[in-house]
Amino acid sequence: MNIGKARAYTNIALIKYWGKKDDRLILPMNNSLSLTLDAFYTETSVQFTPELPTDRFYLDGQLQDDAQTKKISSFLDIVRHKYDVPLFAEVTSKNFVPTAAGLASSASGLAALAGACNAALDLSLTPEELSRLARRGSGSACRSIFGGFAEWQKGDSDDTSYAVQVSSDSWEDELAMLFVLVDDAQKDVSSRDGMKRTVETSVFYQGWLTAAAEDLITAKQAIKEKNFVSLGETAEANALRMHATTLGAMPPFTYWSPDSLKAMNLVRACRAEGISCYFTMDAGPNVKVLVQKKNQARLLAQFTEQFSENQLVMASAGPGIEILNSERSLTHD
Prior knowledge:
The protein has 333 residues and is α+β, with helices and mostly antiparallel strands. It folds into 2 domains: 3-170, Ribosomal Protein S5, domain 2; 173-316, Alpha-Beta Plaits. Helices cover 36% and strands 26% of the residues. It has 8 helices and 14 strands. It has helices at 66-83, 105-120, 127-135, 191-201, 205-225, 228-247, 258-272, 296-304; strands at 3-15, 20-22, 27-28, 32-49, 56-59, 62-63, 88-95, 149-153, 162-165, 175-180, 277-280, 287-292, 312-316, 322-327. Strand 8 (149-153) and strand 9 form a beta hairpin. The longest helix has 21 residues, at 205-225. The chain is globular and about 60 Å long. Residues 8-163 form the Diphosphomevalonate decarboxylase-like N-terminal domain. Its EC number is 4.1.1.33. This is diphosphomevalonate decarboxylase. Keywords: ATP-binding, Lipid biosynthesis, Lipid metabolism, Lyase, Nucleotide-binding.
């Protein structure tokens, strides 16, 4: 059977997804809105074959153990059941994203896996169908099917929860995002465990849901009007409120590190000096700074005074999922 190969790019949520109402189907508690970026991505190939007695998963050239393969196999089980495929698969993935460091590696990884399965099995899925499938692997993966701005509509069932493109008249091409990589270590509390604890125990969570719904409306209007200040202010406030919910959980926890605070304070200092920029953070210590391209050189100059060059990556808006090729041999790197 064919090898399907796909590349998917990471997306960073400006209006966050934080919390599930259905763990099995990965249905979120709120809509979210993201910007797909070109700096970090995952390339994955898949081949279903009768030659294998079980799934086999290679990550960055290394054969993974059963524990690491479990999430991949769980997703492949969904594909096998949904499309009547009675075969195990070999999956080869190269991650150009620090894994589990708050840089949405699961989003690009599972989106690429969904795209590779689509190619390997000649499913010819529409973007909406592919987004729904990717969501079953990792919620935010449904947004990485699309380039630029995308909104994950929470829905209330498997069929109604998927991402859609948010029209911006190519305004995203004028924007950039600076990734401040303060820590690439594995997180103490995973995103999955963190959001579950927050939903179940945080005294701030209901307030978060109310605010997030309002933030989404404001952010989409800002994109429509190409209002950078409104989009940035809304995204920064939304991120801070999301992280506040973790402090209201039991037991409380945080993804911030001292360098996270250092980066956030530097963004505020840059704004005071007339550089319009705004930070956001996902479930990890790394800080992302939204800026207009016309100001990115000035922003980068400020950050290189306090962070090393290998901690700083500038990204532009990225494309949607790409199908790279389809071959007929079982190979891995």
